[in-house]
Each structure stands twice: as structure tokens, then as C-alpha cells.
């Protein structure tokens, strides 16, 4: 339980730190794009190695693929609805889109912690942390530029961090007694949603802001996640 709260605090706290960085610090578009691509590469490898592969080993390929497909489909539908209703830039639409990205990530983190040792979720937690920092920085900056007060923007991001923390805690506590087949589908559902968010939100943003270095940054993210995964595997 202590490990769960420590991991959730660090990962969700990155949203608040990132928001403060975006509002009060200086973040060039090129640097933001590089960091987003780096985080995207790390997260892509992490959901594959920490969620999908273990689910196949403990259950079946069918369970895993059903979960991945369903997660991607649900994310795509929700993302389309948010863009159509609120738009993809600034304000409520931006916050809703980031919350939509974050819920499956943190749900997956909570599920991954079930029965895990001290370092087994290091790659996934580290990748989500890396993803949250630049995402929150860019999102908070856009909100502040849209005319919202800095205090209100920080409060919105703090509230988002609380919501995503709750997703991780619920994912861990509510699903602890679930069978391996069901757990595999849930893990892979979250993984599919994250993969869809990378394809539609993260990598396109990284390319727009830093097209020359986005590919290298993505590869560096993969290397970083693989290194973290190697450490967690002993």
C-alpha cells in the first residue's frame, strides 16, 4: 500500500510540477516537442513490456488482443467526441483530452502494481512521469495564454492530478482479487487506450513542434524505458 501511494504521488505530482513549469517557467516549442517525443517513446515500450507481454504470458494472446483493440476503440470514440464538442485547442477540451489520456495510464499503473515488487513497475511509472511533465507544461501554458488566471490554471491541474491519482488507486484496490484472464483484458484495455493516445495526440504534437529531432527523441525514450525495464528485471 505504501508503495502504491508513493508511486501515485510521484507520477501525479509531475502534472502539478509540469503545470507550474509551463506557467511560470520558459519552455520553447522545440524543447517541448523533444520532451513529448522522448516520453512517447518510453511510454510505447513500457505499455508493451509491462502490460501486454505479461498479460499474454499469464493469460492468452486472445485476451490481450481483445483488450488492446477495445481500449484503442473506446479512446478513439471518446477523443473524437471531445474534439467535436469542445475542440482540441485550449480550455476545457484540452483538459478533457489530457484527463482522457491519463486515466488509462494511471489505471494501468495501479493494476500493474498488483503483486509487484519494489522495482517491477519502474519502467511504466517512469514513462508516465516523463509523459506527464511536458504534457502538463504545454497544456497549462496554452490555458494561461487563453486568458485564464494562473491560479485557476494551477487549481485545474491539481484537480486533474487528484482524479488521475484516484484512477490508479481504484485500479489497484478494486481489481486485486480479479482472475488473471479478466486482469489481462483490463491491463491490455488500458494499454490499447494509451497506444491510441500516442498515435493521435502525443507523436503528432511532437512532430509539429520539433520535426527534425522527434524521431531521435522517440528512440531515446525507447532506450530509456528499456534501461529502466532492465533494472526492474534485475
Give the SSE order as H and E letters: HHHHHHHH
Strand content: under 5%
Total domain units? 1
State the share of residues found in helices, binned by percent: over 70%
DSSP strand tally = 0
Per DSSP, the total helix count is 8
Low-confidence stretches: none
Main pleated-sheet profile: none
Q: What separation lies between the terminal Cα atoms?
A: 22 Å
Mean pLDDT: 82
Provide the gyration radius in Å.
Answer: 17 Å
Which term fits the overall shape? globular
Main structural class: mainly alpha
Could you please describe the fold and organization of this structure?
This is Zinc transporter. Keywords: Membrane, Transmembrane, Transmembrane helix. 85% of the residues lie in helices and 0% in strands. Helix 1 runs antiparallel to helix 6 and helix 2 crosses helix 8. The protein is globular and about 50 Å long. The longest helix is centred in the first third of the chain and has 30 residues. The chain has one domain. With 234 residues, it is an all-alpha fold.
Which secondary structure elements does this structure contain, and how are they paired or packed?
Elements: H1 2-24, H2 29-58, H3 61-86, H4 91-112, H5 122-145, H6 150-173, H7 180-209, H8 214-232
Short description:
The chain is mainly α and 234 residues long. The chain has one domain. 85% of the residues lie in helices and 0% in strands.
Structure characteristics:
single chain; 234 residues; mainly alpha; 8 helices; globular; Zinc transporter; transmembrane helix; membrane; transmembrane
Amino acid at each position: 500500500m505504501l508503495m502504491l501511494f508513493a508511486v501515485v504521488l510521484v507520477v501525479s505530482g509531475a502534472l502539478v510540477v509540469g503545470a507550474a513549469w509551463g506557467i511560470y517557467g520558459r519552455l520553447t516549442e522545440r524543447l517541448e516537442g523533444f520532451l513529448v517525443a522522448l516520453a512517447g517513446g518510453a511510454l510505447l515500450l513500457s505499455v508493451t513490456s509491462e502490460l501486454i507481454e505479461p498479460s499474454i504470458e499469464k493469460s492468452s494472446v486472445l485476451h490481450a488482443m481483445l483488450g488492446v483493440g477495445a481500449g484503442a476503440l473506446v479512446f478513439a470514440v471518446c477523443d473524437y467526441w471531445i474534439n467535436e464538442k469542445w475542440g482540441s485547442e485550449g480550455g476545457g477540451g484540452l483538459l478533457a483530452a489530457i484527463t482522457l489520456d491519463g486515466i488509462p495510464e494511471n489505471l494501468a499503473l495501479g493494476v500493474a502494481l498488483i503483486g509487484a515488487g519494489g522495482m517491477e513497475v519502474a519502467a511504466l511509472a517512469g514513462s508516465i512521469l516523463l509523459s506527464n511533465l511536458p504534457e502538463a507544461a504545454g497544456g497549462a501554458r496554452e490555458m494561461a495564454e487563453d486568458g485564464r488566471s494562473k491560479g485557476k490554471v494551477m487549481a485545474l491541474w491539481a484537480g486533474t492530478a487528484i482524479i488521475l491519482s484516484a484512477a490508479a488507486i481504484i485500479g489497484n484496490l478494486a481489481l486485486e482479487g480479479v482472475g488473471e484472464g479478466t486482469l489481462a483484458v483490463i491491463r491490455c484495455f488500458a494499454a490499447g487506450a494509451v497506444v491510441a493516445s500516442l498515435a493521435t495526440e502525443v507523436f503528432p504534437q511532437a512532430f509539429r513542434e520539433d520535426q527534425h529531432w522527434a524521431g531521435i527523441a522517440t528512440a531515446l525514450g525507447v532506450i530509456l524505458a528499456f534501461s529502466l525495464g532492465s533494472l526492474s528485471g534485475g
